[in-house]
Amino acid sequence: MKLLVLGGTKNLGRHVVEAALASGHDVTLFNRGQTNPSLFPWARRLVGERAAPEALASGEWDGVIDMSGFLVRDVSLSASVLRDRCGFYTYMSSIAVYASKVTPGMTEYAPLLPWPDGAPEDHFTMDLYGPSKVRNESLLTATFGARTAAVRSGFVVGPHNPDFGNWGWALAHNEPLECAARPDQPIQYIDARDLAAFLLHLTVQRSPGPYNAVGPTHTMTDLANAWRSAVPTPPPVDWHPTEDRFHLPHNGTNDGTFQLDNTRALTAGLHLRPPEESARDYVTWIRKGNTPPDPPH
């Protein structure tokens, strides 16, 4: 099928493009041409800004995968430009959309964050990250109806993606795993390759609606032990590091965010590799000389 990927040259986006090309799809990239511009030379490129998407003014696509939609203004523009020229629109959203941070087992239809009165739609702040994702999902549904999906994920790890609490780097260099979170703190994450495959699958199958694209809930202790098993002589876990790389509150006020129900995504075709495999592959990638990028936000 003919696919348009908004973004697609860094972090999760490059896995989406790799999966699409490997499956034989005809891929067009739309981005600023500033990040990894030499990637995917066999894909068609449209260079432009989300705020001024003139490069998207012509052409038709069977599916769109939006990896770079943060500002409400930008997503609104792309939706209006592509409304009658794409078959399906898949939006990369976030688990930050939920109003409750403490309720375990939330499905995709749990209450979402409201849009703050007077908030700007053309300016990004972390306070507006969750509400912006909610608002973008809503405007895409209003524009495309049953021709859109919203994929909600949290921690995404894997080659070319930010490290998981610096664990991959630590394992590759035989250093202690730093974890400032509680040992019993719940955590969910997903391998970038599994998430990319799911984004592509939903687009090809035209499966609408929201999806919690997350793995099973682990405690930090169990997950750390799974990652430590990736090396023959695992280093210890430092539960009191000087730097907090997870930024998770110890008092339980965010525990529900990492106990989401992923049944709908699994039923729709989400496949998850075990954490040991993700850890082994990440360590191998780092040992080949790669450096994890900084978190995107």
Structural class estimated from helices and strands: alpha/beta
Number of helices: 8
**Global shape:** globular
Q: Can you identify the CATH class?
A: Alpha Beta
- Which value, in Å, is the CA radius of gyration? 19 Å
CATH topology: Rossmann fold
Q: Major sheet, described briefly?
A: 7 strands, parallel
CATH level-4 homologous superfamily: NAD(P)-binding Rossmann-like Domain
Contiguous uncertain segments of 5+ residues: none
| Average of per-residue pLDDT values | 95
| Shape-level CATH architecture | 3-Layer(aba) Sandwich
Amount of beta strand: 15-25%
Order of helices and strands: EHEEEHEHEEHEEEHEEHEHH
Organism: Kribbella jiaozuonensis
Protein name: NAD-dependent dehydratase
Relevant terms:
NAD-dependent dehydratase, 297 residues, 8 helices, single chain, seven-stranded parallel sheet, two-stranded parallel ribbon, NAD(P)-bd_dom_sf, Rossmann fold, alpha/beta
